[in-house]
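Entries read chain and fold; for instance:
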Amino acid sequence: MSILIVDDSMVSRVFISDLLNEVGYTDLILCDSVEEAYLVIGFNEPDKTETDLDLILLDINLPGKSGIDACREFSAHEIFCDVPIIIISGSDFLEGLDSAFTAGAIDYITKPPSHTELLARVRSALRLKTEMNRRKAREEDLMVLNERLAEVNLELERLSVTDSLTGLANRRSFNEFLAREWLREQRNQQPFSVVMIDIDHFKKYNDHYGHLEGDVCLQKVSWALQGALCRAGDMLARYGGEEFIAILPHTHIQGATELAAAFHARVRELALPHCGSPVSSIVTISIGIASVIPSQNLSPSDVVAMADKALYQAKDSGRNQCVIAESSTCDDQTAS
């Protein structure tokens, strides 16, 4: 227990320190003024972050800065504010105790203090400091736990909308985005496009290279497709298995077709060998596109079904190609 004793009377300082030493309080700091105490404990050091002081015994009547002023400054200090202060007062200065308590002192003793009174008040103050330290430690532990809980909750939220293998939006996130953007474009009567992508003969890829390499293939293809998206308002999601789907709000058929061409180019650039494919020696994709102006006669699932049907036609026609749904509209409006 570290105790600071500030008293301009050498007799008083020695008397108090001797009483405390007798009962085992040996870590004592003796100063004859507030100014000296501030220097010794580093009160005004800007880089100070903690103190090992457990108690301050402070004379109320000191030369220079008074004990009351020191109480006020200790109480306002970020590092020393939790250190309890016991005022040492002669009988002639008891009228200043109210001001000392208002300034932050918790107790007082009169000069000369009796052995019993001094130890009782010191022990009481040190018990208070110990409890304050425990409370502060509990609060810090709780803050750490709350921060960790917040991080875990953020991670859970991210996982709930993200495909764990590819890092793309998952089916749940896709459904929410589709419904929201469909309503927006329906209100604005702007074109809305869906692009569905399938890796050609992916089962044969897994059969030949194994499922671990198949996962790597899915990751690389998903990253290539994601790299082709240029607008923050578009979404690419893993639709299931080896299928991906892109939602393109405010995008006409020409824009969707250009993006599909970019998808094909990005996947070709990967040049992933596919010995089991009858289509090509490298991994390729098939694409179906649907583009409509949202209306009351259509639902979001309708346009997805249109893109899925176009994808089936692309696969049925030999794969490694893009097919536009027959009922898609070619709007002359330019989409951003």
Remarks:
- The longest strand covers residues 192-199.
- Confidence is low (pLDDT under 50) at residues 330-336.
- The beta strands are 2-6, 27-31, 53-59, 85-89, 107-110, 192-199, 235-240, 243-249, 285-292, 322-324.
- The chain has ten helices and ten strands.
